[in-house]
Write a structure and sequence with these properties.
Strand 16 and strand 17 form a beta hairpin. The protein has one helix and 27 strands. The radius of gyration is 19 Å and the shape is globular. It is mainly beta and 362 residues long. A four-stranded antiparallel β-sheet has the order 3-2-1-27, with no helix packed on it. Strands 7-8-9-10 form a four-stranded antiparallel β-sheet. 1% of the residues lie in helices and 41% in strands.
């Protein structure tokens, strides 16, 4: 059985889980107690995996911590790793995303932040440089702020081309670069914005999450503020694939680590309640790129369940068979060791879960 490391970022610290040989789990934490951990990365591109955590201190402010011993110890740089430069007249509120790029860029890590900006590291997340081109995009001043604030919360990189980067902004929509971040273009054609006078604007959509297909990097899945979409051309055009889901609202979407056409979502009722549809805890999986969806609920609560899954709190690992994980705002973490066919509760009574990440480690 693969040795899995599971990182769970919560409203009050980071918890690290390890799967034992008998399939049970043990957790350490909280690391960074009383700090909200909105972003976690497990960078397995190096011989010893590096953990990165974006933690918010109400006293000292946000910071990016790193560990090269699987969380036994943590290092915080003497100077802020992510900092807005002079002249921007703003300061960092939160690191929403920490994304190690592909093997073609082995030391590159991107950080997406609130306010909505992008930073790039060329040393594995030790220091970051401000991506000024996105900040100075003429549409940025018109971006709104979602309920959770204005943030670059998703970064997707193309494993074939280190210069191809896609980001999602709440609420600005999808933006793509094909020149390493020197320039950016909105990529929202086909995505609805029901809250705007023009329901299909060039930008301004409240995109909640994007995930990339493992076999075709041009195929992307998008969970919108109303609508689930797929693009087969790197985000140039999006098609609604929400038919068959109990609700097209939700926050999270993730993909299988190896199988093309396999993606997972956790639907949430739109409107004023924001609960799982029918108060049932169910993950939905497509195995045909969104042509159809099936409910995955074996081992999950069947009724009277009110915990929703936030945008970064549904994730797969790189094991075979793949593991699937999600945490909810009730402080529960569920894991599937069989690609979603069955689930078990592996942690409970945690603070509200904000993000999860999992990977095979030695």
């Amino acid at each position: 059985m693969d040795n899995i490391l599971l990182g769970v970022g919560t409203q009050k610290g980071l918890f690290l889980g390890r799967r034992r040989g008998d399939g049970s789990w043990g957790f350490t934490g909280p690391h960074f107690p009383m700090q909200a951990v909105y972003s976690v990365a497990i960078d397995t591109r190096r011989s010893v995996p590096r953990l990165l955590a974006g933690a918010d201190s109400s006293h000292w402010g946000p910071s990016v911590f790193r560990s090269d011993d699987l969380g036994a110890s943590w290092h915080e740089p003497a100077r802020p790793a992510v900092k807005f430069p002079q002249g921007t007249d703003t300061s960092l509120e939160r690191v929403w995303q920490l994304h190690p790029a592909g093997a073609a860029a082995p030391d590159v890590v991107y950080a997406g932040t609130e306010p909505g900006a992008l930073f790039r590291s060329d040393d594995g997340g030790e220091t970051f440089e401000f991506v000024r081109s996105l900040w100075e995009h003429p549409q940025r001043e018109h971006w709104g702020a979602g309920f959770g604030g204005q943030a670059v919360h998703t970064v997707v990189t193309d494993p074939r081309d280190p210069g191809a980067v896609t980001v999602a902004v709440s609420t600005g929509g999808v933006y793509s670069s094909r020149d390493g971040g020197a320039s950016w273009a909105p990529s929202n054609t086909g995505v609805r914005a029901d809250f705007l006078p023009d329901p299909y604007p060039e930008f301004g959509q409240c995109v909640h999450k994007i995930a990339q297909d493992p076999t075709d990097p041009d195929r992307l899945y998008l969970q919108n503020h109303g609508g689930v979409y797929r693009s087969d051309d790197g985000g140039a055009l999006w098609t609604d694939i929400g038919k068959g889901l109990p609700a097209d609202f939700g926050f999270a979407v993730t993909t299988h680590p190896r199988l093309g056409g396999v993606a997972y979502v956790f639907p949430v009722s739109d409107g004023g309640d924001r609960y799982p549809p029918g108060y049932r805890c169910q993950v939905y999986r497509t195995e045909d790129s969104g042509g159809s969806w099936s409910a995955l609920s074996a081992g999950l609560p069947h009724e009277d369940h009110y915990g929703i899954v936030l945008r970064d709190a549904l994730r797969t690992d790189d094991a075979d068979p793949a593991g699937v994980y999600f945490g909810n705002r009730n402080g529960e973490v569920y894991a599937s060791a069989d690609e979603g066919d069955s689930w078990k509760l592996v942690a409970s009574h945690l603070p509200a879960v904000l993000c999860v990440r999992a990977a095979v480690v030695q």
